[in-house]
C-alpha cells in the first residue's frame, strides 16, 4: 500500500489481515457441534451465565484481581455499554466530565443524550486529578467518563497515586466513574495494571470489549460493575425488550475463550502491537521536526502529537492527504474544540513498512509546513 | 409440559424447539467456508450492502412493493431500531402517540427517553384514526408509534381505508410514523398486506426483525425508510462509534437468505402458527365463559381477551398461576395503566397439547373466578 495511496494513520481499527478468522472458524465449528440452541433465543438481559463465566475466567487470568461472573453484564460492545449507562444513570441536561482530549465518538454519544460536557486536562500521568478536584468545588457532575489505561487518544495510563486520589474524590463527591477500558489488556505492563474498578469497586463501571482484542464484528463486550449497579442497568427498556446483547457472537466467543483461542491471540497481538509501537516511536523521534513533541504511549493503539500552538491540524489535513498521509485532528477529540495543534496517530492498523512510509510522509509534510509558516 | 408446571400463555417468544438450528448451522457452514473476513471488522453504519441486498430481495418476494437495499439500515433488532429512531428524532419532553394498548416494552423505551406518551384507542380495524385526528387538533406529537399489522397485543391489522386516512393525517400534521412491523410476514393474508410504508413512504419508518421469523438470538433487524430519513439516523453517535449492528449474525443470515433457508422456514412457521392460532381460537370460543370476549387475530403471535370491566387481571395473576396458567395483564400494555380487564395470550410458544391444557386451565379459572365475584 505504499505509493500514491493515502496512509491514514488516523484509523483506529484493527488491521483487516490480522483479524483472527482461523480462530473464529475454529470456535464457531466447536460451538455449532455442541448440542443446544440457546444462542438462537432471547438471552437473559445480563447475558448467558456460561459466557459471563468464561469472560470472568479470562479477565481473572489477565488482571491482578479476580472477576466474578455476577459482576459482568454482556453488551454489544463498549459503545452500547456507554449508552446503556447513560440511559440509566443520566438525564438530559446533566453535567458530565471527560478528559480533554477524549475519545471523539463518545462526545457524539453524550451529545445525543443531551448532556452538558466539561473537560479536565490529561498529562503524562493521566487525568489531572487536581483539576478535577477544583472543578468539583463548583460543579456537581453526574459522572466522569475516563479512559484510564492506554488512553484514547493520548496513550498514557493513570498513575497509581492519581488512581487512589481519584477514588477518594469520587467517594467524597458521590461521583460515578465510567472507565472505558477497551485498551486495558493492550498495555505494556498488561496484567500488572488493575482495572480502575479495583480502586473504587462501588463507583466504577468498567466498559470492556472484544473489539480491540479479538474482532470488532462480534459487537460483544461487557460492563464490569457491582451487582447493585448492574441491577439498576438491567431495568433499561431497550435491554428488556431485546434481551441480552449479541447471543450468536457470544456463543462463538464462549468457545473461543474456552478453547484458549482468545488468550493465544491476545498474546500474539500484544507482542505485535508493542513492536509496531516501538517502531513508530523510533521513527517519529528520528524524523519529526523538533518542535513536534509526544509522550511514548504505554500501550493501546495511539500516539498523540503536539505541534506548535499556532498550528491547526484540522485545517492542515487536506494538504496532508495530498502528501499521502492522514491523521485525526486534535480538535475532534476535545469537548471544546481545543487541542487544535495536536493529532492522533494509530500504530496498529498498518504493517511496519506502511507505518514507516506513513511516518516519513508525515514528518516530511510537517517539516515543509512548519518551515513555511 | 402438562401437569403442575405453569403454562405461561403470556410468553411472546418463539418456542425453543422450533428455532431453526439446522438452517442456522447450514448457513453458518456456508458463510464460514467463503473467503473473506469482513464480518469480523467494524461494519459500515448502514450495514453491509450485500446483506441489505439479500434482505431487500427477501422482502420484495414477500410483499407487494419492491424494497431497495439503499432504503434499509441494519439494526440489532426492532428494539434497537426503535431506540435509534428516538435518539435521532425526539428530545426528552416530546409528546408521542401510541395505540392503547400497545407493546409494553416499547413503553419502557419511551420512559427511558423521557418522552410524554399519549394513547389513542385501537379496535377491530386497527388504530382509531378519528381519535388520532381529534388528538391532533390539540396536540403536536413528534411521532406515532404503531403496530399496524397483526398488532401486539390485539392481533388486528389496520384496515385499508384507515391506512389511507392515517397517511393523510400524517402529511397534514407533519407526523412521523414508526411502524413496528415485526409480525408483518406472519399475517393470514401475508404477501397481500403492504408495509405501512407504502401508504406514506416519506413519513413512515418501518421496523423489521428476524426475531419473529427466524431467531431472536441473531439480534438482527432493519429500518426501512427513505434515504433522507436514514441519512439522519446514520448520524447517531453510538452507531458511528460501534459501526453497523451485528455483523457476525448478519453474515450468517446473509447466507440463510441466499440459500432460501429463511423463505423455507417462514413458510413452515406461517402454516404452523396459523394452525396453532386456529386451534387456540376454537378452544377459547368453546371454553371461555360468555362474558369473556375477543377478536380472532389476523396473524402474528397474540390474542387479546376482554373480561368484564370490573376485573383486574393483574391482581388475578397470582391466583391464575396457582391454577397452572399465566398471561400478560392488560394494564401492562397501556400507557395509562388502562385495559386492566384485558389480557394478552400468545399462541406460538407452545405445542397444541400444551395450548389445549393452558386454555382449559384458563377457562376453568375464569369460570370459577367470575362466578365468585
The gist of it:
Two copies of one chain form a homodimer. With 373 residues, chain A is an alpha/beta fold.
The CATH superfamily of the largest domain in chain A is known as: Type I PLP-dependent aspartate aminotransferase-like (Major domain)
Rg of chain A (CA only): 21 Å
Percent of residues in helices of chain A: 40-55%
Alpha plus pi helix count of chain A: 12
Number of strands of chain A: 14
Shape of chain A: globular
Assembly type: homodimer
Beta percentage of chain A is 15-25%
Q: Structural class per helix/strand content of chain A?
A: alpha/beta
What is the residue-mean pLDDT of chain A, rounded to a whole number?
Answer: 96
Largest interface: A-B, 57 and 57 residues
CATH class of the largest domain in chain A: Alpha Beta
Please give the structural blueprint.
2 copies of one chain form a homodimer.
Chain A (H helix, E strand, L loop, with lengths): L6 E2 L12 H13 L15 H14 L9 E4 L2 H12 L5 E6 L3 H9 L3 E8 L2 E2 L1 H8 L6 E4 L13 H14 L2 E5 L23 E6 L11 E4 L2 H7 L3 H6 L4 H12 L2 H27 L5 E2 L7 E5 L6 H10 L2 E2 L1 E2 L12 E5 L5 H21 L1
Helix pairs in contact in A: 1-9, 2-9, 5-6, 10-12
